[in-house]
DNA sequence: AATTATTACTAAAACAATTTAGTTTACTCA
DNA sequence: TGAGTAAACTAAATTGTTTTAGTAATAATT
């Protein structure tokens, strides 16, 4: 089905680089040039009351003219702050994560903070190593969405003890006490399941991620609660937990799970899927197996893909305010860094949005 | 069609943080504790020949025991290097970009370099401001995919003059002389167009991005060349350039363009779309307008979405090796930073991969 | 025994900024 | 006139690391 056409074009030209190795202009350079002391220059640039108006103007003009830009290392060394924050996530290559990172970046860069992004690739050891690296690089704070392997949070509490505030986002844990930002996964799952029930479905399967992370467990609970509130008995044969670590495992396990579900009697008439990857992959596999959605089986799932509308059929989703999660988490962290609210930690759960499309329509 | 259910749950607990404000242990701390000089400690840690074996062991043990980690600011200040590189892109929230960033990150973090990602949001002024910020933060090098507004590259050549190497990726320009990494857009477009022709299509429209960037122009050229090589005359009424800066403008302009194409007589029987967003959005809009793909009109386009298989119909794409673009660009930059190849610049064009699915199948 | 090498260390400078603790100078007021 | 004070500046210390230049002490060579 896939026709691969390969070719390499390598063009190269040989040119003199001619780097002139212009060193940055420093405070002392300005001081020397204007025959004043470096401290005066420093104060002039920070608009200190101790400096006269003419001197200030002189310095400012010279600085602007010579494109002076303070050395971040020197300043960081002196102040013990770097004006940078670490962002540690499982993977950057993921639509939902990219949206959250966008929110983080926007909030931080507007406030003069730089972000250093690192990936744990869902590995606990990698996560620990990255925390060490980030600490060494002098971050003022850490935003983290822990790996799914992470059960021991001592690397993070230790960071807190070292004076580096930590904020959890997307994936929360009760094993660390700090600000936390995510969506209300329980309610999102409850709403999705309820929507299926309201559309006349009673035999509802559930496919979730095989992890202890609250993201997954809360969604499972929301599903169960919706069934219970509607007087529908839970059927454990309709509930599947699968390993989503890598794409192949996911596909294989999901395919098996779907087969088991469809072959089981009585078979479910709808599925609520708990993660982005499971939801879209599920649609693909059902399609491949020749099932018609929602005629043979209805589908709704957590997903933030922009392409939900274009899928076949268009996919009903529980949509998360990803950008807002990121920017709120960043806001919480910066307020910790700047010494506010340090004696009371919040857990903020944002509402999800039910986006109803074709895949969950009633059978009629 | 979209039923929005909103709710906010805010739970909060009040807890003592008890940050103990443990300062990092420094070289001097170790020196004082062991009654030796700081320089000895420094040398012991870097395994210098000038230090005796017992002293080395003493220092190393003490350092490990007390979790010594060198202060990156101090080291950076002294060495004039930060072991961090700047990555300046138009937007992080984009599947293709996230994949490239993944490649960059992997290559860099394996070699002890941190990446600082900033977004220009397609704004030239923002790009310039970010370059200044990155320079101020002491980056050792810059990876950049310029904004579509960027025609003046003096902010980048200036950076080179200051001794900071620059590498272009994905979006190239002839206005700066340096290493460049992207795909062979001409060949990718040529192959896609040729594929349509081989499938019996002769009336082939083209929708491209309204920019001077080589990404767009090369793809246009590839399209034209394929037509020419097949003896098909170019029809300018079938060629549309649209503004993709924001989602709404894109949708609006694309919708108009499609209407014009389909209403024109003779009407095209296939479309080759030049960017990810245009390709997927095009499919969505054709679907919405009730056209059947490929029956009414065939479609193939540049796109790196993982969901191409699940789309309705599955979308034939020109796929780019995004991860490889990123990691190769990073490799080129690090080699510049480490003083290799500074007098000969390369442009590396990776091959694209034609992924043929349902949307470009022959009519019968 | 005197000279040279080698080993194993140290003091102090350098990096670029901020900050502490003053020092001038000019001016006010009794 | 002389004390007091505000304004406008500066020298030097500080931050943590690396590096230069140099010092002892021991070992090897003549």
UniProtKB/TrEMBL annotation, chains A, B:
GO MF term (any one): DNA-binding transcription factor activity
Query: Is Transcription found in the keyword set?
Result: yes
Q: Do you know which Pfam families this protein is assigned to?
A: LacI, Peripla_BP_3
Highest taxon in the source lineage: Bacteria
The cross-references to Gene3D superfamilies, in alphabetical order and at most eight, read: 3.40.50.2300, lambda repressor-like DNA-binding domains (1.10.260.40)
Print the keywords alphabetically. Answer: DNA-binding, Transcription, Transcription regulation
Name all HTH lacI-type domain ranges.
25-79
**Name of the protein this chain belongs to:** Transcriptional regulator, LacI family
């Amino acid at each position: 089905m896939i026709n691969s056409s390969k070719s390499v074009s390598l063009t190269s030209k040989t040119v003199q680089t001619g780097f002139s190795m212009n060193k940055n202009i420093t405070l002392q350079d300005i001081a020397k040039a204007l025959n004043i002391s470096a401290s005066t220059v420093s104060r002039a640039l920070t608009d200190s009351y101790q400096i006269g108006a003419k001197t200030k103007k002189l310095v400012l003009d010279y600085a602007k003219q010579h494109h002076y830009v303070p050395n971040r290392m020197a300043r960081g060394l002196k102040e013990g702050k770097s004006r940078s924050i670490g962002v540690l996530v499982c993977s950057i290559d993921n639509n939902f994560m990219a949206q959250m990172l966008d929110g983080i970046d926007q909030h931080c860069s507007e406030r003069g903070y730089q972000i250093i992004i690192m990936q744990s690739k869902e590995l606990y050891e990698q996560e620990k190593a990255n925390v060490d690296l980030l600490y060494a690089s002098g971050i003022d704070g850490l935003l983290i969405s822990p790996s799914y392997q992470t059960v021991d949070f001592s690397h993070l509490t230790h960071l807190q003890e070292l004076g580096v505030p930590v904020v959890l986002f997307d994936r929360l844990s009760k094993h660390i006490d700090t600000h936390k930002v995510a969506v209300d996964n329980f309610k999102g799952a409850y709403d999705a399941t309820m929507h299926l029930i309201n559309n006349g479905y009673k035999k509802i399967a559930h496919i979730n991620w095989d992890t202890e992370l609250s993201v997954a467990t809360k969604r499972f609970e929301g599903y169960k609660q919706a069934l219970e509130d509607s007087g529908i008995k839970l059927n454990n044969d309709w509930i599947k937990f699968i390993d989503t670590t890598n794409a192949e495992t996911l596909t294989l396990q999901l395919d098996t799970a779907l087969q088991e579900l469809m072959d089981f009697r009585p078979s479910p008439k709808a599925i609520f899927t708990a993660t982005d990857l499971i939801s879209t992959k599920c649609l693909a596999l059902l399609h491949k197996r020749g099932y018609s959605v929602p005629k043979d089986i209805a589908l709704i799932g957590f997903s933030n893909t922009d392409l939900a509308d274009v899928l076949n059929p268009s996919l009903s989703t529980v949509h998360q305010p990803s950008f807002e999660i990121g920017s709120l988490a960043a806001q919480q962290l910066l307020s910790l860094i700047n010494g506010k609210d340090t004696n009371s930690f919040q857990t903020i759960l944002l509402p999800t949005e039910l986006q109803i499309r074709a895949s969950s329509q009633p059978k009629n």
